[in-house]
Amino acid sequence: MAPPAFDYSNGRAVVQHGSIFYSPNCSRPVDIPQEPVHSSNPFRWHRLDVSMFKQPVWWDQNWAWRSFIPLAPSFLFAPFEPLCAMPRIEEVRFSFSAPSGEMVTQIRFRLPEDDIRRWLWAEDLIVKAAYELRLRYSIAGNTPPKPSSFHFDRAHKSHPIAKRMACLARDWFAVWMGYLSFIIAKSENRVAKTAPADPSSAAPDWYSYLLKQPEFDELWLDGLSQSAVCTFDWKTPRAGIIFQWSVNDRDREPIEWYSKHNIPLWFIWSNREEQAIRNNTDLNFLRPPDNLIQEALNILFAAPGLPLAGLIIQKYFALGNDPITNKTIEFLRLQYAPTFVFEYTAKRFINQEALLQETEATADARLEVFKVLRDNTIKATAHAASSYPYHGLSATAAPHAAPSVQSQDVPATVRETGRNYNEFFAAREKRQQEMIKLESAVDRQRRESREQKPGVVNATIYEWEKTQSSGGLELYKRVKVNKKANETVFHSYRSHQRLFNAFSNEWDLCEDFQFGIVDNTSYSDDGYDSGNDDVYPVNAVSQPTKAPPSAAPIDTDMGQSWCEYSRAPLETMSLVYGYVPHAGETDIPPTLSWERMLNFMGFVRNLEELDVGEPERSAMMNFFAAVLNAVNTYKSDKVVAKNFENLSLLFQFEHVRRPTEDLFVFSSPKSDSCRWVLGVHSATAALYVCRYILENPMAHTIVTVAHRLLDRGIPFRTLLPLTCSPRQVTIAEPYVPRSYRLSDHTFTKADFDVAMLACRSVLSSPQGRAALLQGGIVGRIAREYVSKDGVLSGPSIEVTAHRVGYLVPSGDNNIKFCDDQLTANEVAIICGTYSLHTPYKGQVAVWTWFPPPEAWVHNRTGCHWLDWTERCEDIFQRILTGIHDGTGRPRSTTQWLTHLRGQNVSRILIKHNDVRSQQFMDAMVPIGQ
User: Fold this and answer.
1) By C-alpha distance, which of 71, 177, 69, 76 is closest to 763?
2) Residue 721's beta-bridge partner residues?
3) 245, 239 Cβ separation under 8 angstroms
């Protein structure tokens, strides 16, 4: 295995326990534990919590699998579907016979029995899969406790205890995800001990083996394959591993293996490693840059008023390495320091001689105080960093900074997303105030009507789920509710826990909201149930005191979300094709009827309702004929050029930037509610933006334009100018098969439902907002799960903190325009992709439930309108109808091209409009402007 090419700009160095640790592939603040003297069971503690296992672990053959524990796994996959929504706690009455013979009744609290059975089912399959694969590949490692060890299957003394134990058990499935991840990763290079692999199957051996077991089917295995268990990329942050690479251990997996699976690697950097690299230059890839080490030392030496570097040098030469007399050893052991570390510390010492004399008498006491503060800071920042991996998480309250926390110690993700719900609603209100200025009379009437009488059944509802961070910080995540459960979920909250937004017809629900008069009724008991309840009625008969509100089912039914497309021919003709009313007569006669013209523009139903009066109707038909005529035809180009000339006089194109050939950037009209600028990738889209702004230049802002593009399904970007290194480029990740079927497999609605669970997981990730920005078929699918607010809030933490996504030079030094970006793998999951194979090795086809983007926009399909038209929606709904009635099946790209084959006139219309738009924008906005 070739050595990895580490990019140390994504690395980090820390100083803990007197040693320097560095990571070539992890920039997350971590808390390095003391190296254990001997192997011990990490699960021996009484009160276990998944937050105890989110930091890097020292390599140990029995427990190295803990390095694979994911920090923020999604449960939106088939094996974990029962865990997607936290069930409601129900109150039950227990009746049992006391030792005296008397019947005793008690009130307790538990999960509904159906949910208990579903959780146990999920646990049994995960545990069974891990057991089977461990045996097949002879993989060493001790197993963790089961989630049921937290007693989610029993009743508890109080509502808070029942809820806490259920939350602990639910989170504990992440530990088993890590355990199974490790086993599957190890299986890749292991020869099965029980039976040889199937050479005719394109699926991994572990997948094929489990498929032969009676407990597992393809749907369950698809979900497992697409979940965090089998996702070994940078978007699935994991705990990490620590070891000293200069010390050989034949049982330890190689560095390349951990790097391949994107496990954060942490190494000791001492004079031993330095000498090893001098003796073998092939190890140079493991040498950390001096600036990385210097940054860690600067943070260590930054204690105000304490000359720590000077004290370390002074006491090292005066007291040696005795930890009893030399208190500085706890901060840095110079005995093992590499050359650069020793020289840099000595240089700092020279500059601190005067301060050393001033603090000599109180040095030891001040060192003890500083150590406590520093340890607390390290733990706080490390725990916070392991708890902020997702976009859309908001702190329940403003986090309190630990003493003497340096700004560089605070993870960027915390600074970006650490806000409470009031700030979220304030930002949304600010954006909507800009959009209200452009409301039509009809929209205003509808909004005011909703304000007077808010609806529930047809509204969009979001629940704010509360989760516990590893550092004890409580966070919120905004989750869309299945519309079928709107009323049930709505009525499970009190009035002060609901907030209605009339502008977007949305409800936000959370137990912690305090809007209006607050009902202060609450439970006071909160604790941890260890299961040692002497009076627990083991054989008692229980009965719910009232029917609990059911948890919202996971919504895989599609086609009912907001979807806006134009039903105004004049609007479409003007904004998309550049028609200007009353621009003058044309001598190009129409060749098509009004109805046929509308049809070729994407209008489908009730065309008689779309009539336009004369003389506008005739002028539009003449203009349509001109656009349809061949480019570089004198008469046609003259008609179109006349409309372009009007635009060139009205719009200030000098304010449009064009850093690359296919990117047009609009920074005005400015908005007070966003920091990003708007970008589009085609000249046709750029002209749409220009024309739309000119409709109301005094009221429009970047936000109102973006909102319009969202409504019409037009692709665009929310570009944030950020400082980036030259090595940080747009992410590219090729498609890798995850779901497998034989070519004769009979697809059912159940296959589709599992595929859409995986789709929803991608769309709920930080970069999932990029799907809605992408427009087209991917954007339409995303409308089912992604809110407009998630897009208008701007790029996610993947961009702001990690610089991962779409990155393009802005033309301004190291500043790049950045936005979220989907990978080929993520697009494949959104479209519901399978690899179909035959009994003959090498014959594999790729089929999808929805047309892949390359098929949707292909010039043979006629679906490549700039905006999402009525015909686009008609095609989408027919696909869904076929899936639901059992006639729809996944198709190959070639089959989709045949299925989507559009009308030739539409294809010509789109092509000629794009060519003329490109010619005009090339003249008005040259590349590099």
Assistant:
1) 76
2) 817
3) no
| Helical pair 702-712 and 683-695, crossing angle rounded to 10 deg | 120
What is the value of pTM for the model shown? 0.82
Cα(398)–Cα(380) distance, rounded to whole angstroms? 14
DSSP alpha helix (H) spans, 612-742 = 616-628, 634-650, 683-695, 702-712
821 contacts 730 by C-beta, under 8 angstroms: yes
Cα(73)–Cα(87) distance, integer angstroms: 18
The number of C-alpha atoms within 13 Å of 672 and in the hemisphere containing its C-beta is: 8
Is the CB of residue 756 less than 8 Å from the CB of residue 846?
A: no
Structure tokens at 352: 């601190």
Structure tokens given for 764: 């709920």
Q: What is the mean pLDDT of the chain?
A: 85
Average pLDDT score over residue span 876-890: 94
Q: Which residues contact 294 (CB under 8 A, 6 or more apart)?
A: 340, 344
pLDDT at 404: 32
Question: What are the DSSP calls for 20-43, one per residue?
Answer: EEEESS--S---PPPPPSS---TT
Q: Which residue has the tokens 């409009």?
A: 913
Pairing of the two strands 57-58 and 241-243:
parallel
Please tell me the number of Cα atoms within 13 Å of 661 on its side-chain side.
2
Confidence of residue 53 (pLDDT cuts 50, 70, 90): very high
CA distance 676 to 401: 28
* Residue 126 structure tokens: 């995960």
3-class DSSP assignment, residue 508 = strand
Confidence of residue 99 (pLDDT cuts 50, 70, 90): confident
Confidence bin at 252 (pLDDT 50/70/90): very high
pLDDT band at 842 (very low <50, low <70, confident <90, very high): low
The pLDDT-based confidence of 321 (bands split at 50, 70, 90) is: confident
- Rounded to 10 degrees, the C-alpha dihedral 881/882/886/888 comes to -150
Cα dist from 535 to 53, 104, 153, 538, whole Å: 33, 11, 17, 9
Using alpha carbons, select from 156, 171, 170, 175 the residue that is nearest to residue 527. 156
Answer yes or no: are the C-beta atoms of 719 and 683 closer than 8 Å: no
Q: How big is the CA angle at 778 (ends 174 and 553), to the nearest 5 degrees?
A: 45
Of 883, 826, 816, the C-alpha closest to 853 is: 826
**Contact, 623 vs 586, CB < 8 A?**
yes
Give the mean model confidence (pLDDT) for residues 479-508: 88
Is residue 144 within 8 A of residue 127, CB to CB? The reply is no
Determine the Cα–Cα distance for residues 258 and 235; give it in Å rounded to an integer: 15
- Is the CB of residue 738 less than 8 Å from the CB of residue 818? no
What is the reported pLDDT for 560?
54
Q: What pLDDT score does 394 carry?
A: 43
Supply the pLDDT for residue 640. 78
Residues 6 or more apart whose Cβ sits within 8 Å of residue 625: 588, 589, 590, 591, 592
803 φ, ψ (degrees, to nearest 5): 55, 40
Task: Report yes or no: 415 and 439 within 8 Å, Cβ to Cβ.
Answer: no
Burial 405-433 (b: 16+ CB within 10 A, else e): beeebbbbbbebbbbbbeebbebbeebbe
663 beta partners: 660
Q: In this structure, what is the dihedral angle of CA atoms 758, 761, 767, 771, given to the nearest 10 degrees?
A: 60
pLDDT of residue 520: 61
Assess whether pLDDT exceeds 60 at residue 410.
no
Confidence of residue 680 (pLDDT cuts 50, 70, 90): very high
